[in-house]
């Protein structure tokens, strides 16, 4: 009993190969992008955008060898200036989908191997009847091809740390700032009118001193 949805555009049928080693079949299909095809909150293929897929299906002794390429648009955000980033992505991939019985024989032969673990078993792709799901393989290929830190242009200058202005739009952008070495002296400067008060106080003190001498 197959668990795959045959109506899913990323599920492919290998029935025509007939399990004859050496049999070939080429498939071209344009599908809508599923969710999660990229790096979350960084850059990804927009959901429901078109993905052009070309596959070469080859029957081998253990299963079906799938070789293909995919082309799609990607959208994200520049990590320096937060401007939108748009690009076209082309990825290539190859994966062997095991026949159910071939996979069981393979696991039985290697059951005692020291290097066999659950992780490697999870990475094995299997046919379900005559069908296989391309989505996991496609997702891995897209994620590996995408930049972890996308930029709108290689020499993007980012944003001003004070006002948030985009520096690439104005390379001469700057803010006048007081020399921090003078900051402590600014509080000691006399306010308007203080100078006269100081003189008056000085004269009063001198007059008081003269009266004391008399």
From TrEMBL:
InterPro entries: YceD. Signal peptide: none annotated. Residues 170-214 are annotated as: Disordered. Residues 170-179, 197-214 have a biased composition (Basic and acidic residues). This is DUF177 domain-containing protein. It comes from Kitasatospora sp. CMC57. The lineage of its organism: Bacteria, Bacillati, Actinomycetota, Actinomycetes, Kitasatosporales.
